[in-house]
Design brief:
The protein is 11% helix and 45% strand. The chain is mostly beta strands. Keywords: Membrane, Transmembrane, Transmembrane helix.
């Protein structure tokens, strides 16, 4: 049996480190790449764009908060984005990261209540193909092996990891961006108000979304928030997913002025609008009326308008020709 944990980012202007409970092991990245010093996501995960034939290294730390020594194995492994969640791949060698990443101490004994600094080297061959790979650097602890056939012959394996988002290719880092397409207010089965934000990854890199929501100008002039968006949503390029914000069950239905700020690393977007929560549990209300019309929607409307104008122009020309023929 095994338990795996990958660090997750928080919302706001900073991302917390992966904190381990007392009596366990933890792992923490200690540095970001030089071109991502202003990217809070890069201090939690290894997020990089590397040219083929390049070598880089990253320092990280292992913590043992237990009162006994722990034998820890360290190794890289592949990961994937499945159902908008970053998860370990069933096969740790599913991509090349297992052969590209090496740990300076693949196995060690961590004394009680200790911290140990380690180094991960990433070597990209010149023949590497373009594209983003997902993986993790794992720290694994296994319970003592038991003899087959003995009572309770189950070995527990616990591991914690640092996510790796590694894009390979010439030139600079591909663009990262997203679009907040819609806000929908609703209520859970127990009547808790919730807002669902539909987000589309319009860039070329995976995103880890977090953020905050504020409500203002509610009934009686009420204001509420900030409320944190639920973390854990990882969007692959070209994909859409809902980001949920759970609110206080004491809030009245509205109407409310709403402000939502979402971010992934250095990319931030904010939408504002007006919404009203439905009265009944387990229902969704009408989408919020957003204050700003999205650029993509303007492009679509403009295109449709141009097609309509062209259609009526063609129709008018045909009618004019018919009249001329009748007059002749």
């Amino acid at each position: 049996m095994g338990v795996s944990a990958l660090a997750e980012g928080g919302s706001g202007t900073s991302y917390p480190s992966h904190r381990e409970p007392d009596g366990s092991i933890g792992i923490k990245l200690l540095e970001a790449s030089s071109n991502r010093k202003n990217d809070p996501r890069a201090y939690l995960y290894i997020v990089d764009h590397i040219n083929p034939g390049t070598r880089v290294s990253r320092r990280f730390e292992i913590r043992n908060t237990s009162s006994s020594s722990q034998r820890i194995k360290l190794y890289p492994g592949a990961a994937e984005i499945r159902h908008n969640t970053f998860v370990p791949a069933a096969d740790r060698h599913a991509n090349e990261l297992g052969s590209w990443i090496s740990i300076d101490r693949p196995e060690l004994i961590a004394p009680p209540n200790s911290r140990i600094q380690l180094n991960a080297k990433i070597s990209i061959p010149k023949s590497a193909s373009e594209g983003e790979r997902y993986g993790a650097i794992w720290a694994e602890v296994a319970s003592p092996s038991v003899k087959p056939g003995s009572a309770g012959n189950i070995q527990m394996i616990n591991r914690v990891g640092i996510r790796v988002y590694l894009d390979i290719g010439p030139g600079g880092d591909p663009p990262s961006d997203f679009r907040i397409e819609q806000l929908t207010p609703g209520r859970t089965e127990v009547g808790m108000p919730v807002v669902k934000a539909t987000v589309n990854n319009t860039g070329e890199r995976a995103l880890d979304l977090g953020g905050q929501m504020w409500l203002s100008d509610g009934p009686g002039g009420l204001n509420a928030g900030p409320f944190r968006a639920q973390v854990g949503t990882t969007l692959a390029p070209g994909y859409s997913a809902p980001v949920m914000v759970m609110l206080d069950d004491r809030l009245p239905d509205g109407p409310w002025q709403v402000k939502l700020m979402l971010e992934s690393g250095r990319v931030h977007h904010t939408v504002t609008g007006t919404l009203t929560f439905p009265e009944k549990p387990a229902t969704w209300g009408l989408p919020a009326l957003l204050d700003s019309f999205p650029l993509w929607a303007l492009v679509i409307v403009g295109s449709l308008a141009a097609v309509a104008v062209a259609f009526f122009l063609v129709l008018a020309v045909r009618r004019l020709r018919r009249r001329r023929r009748v007059a002749q």
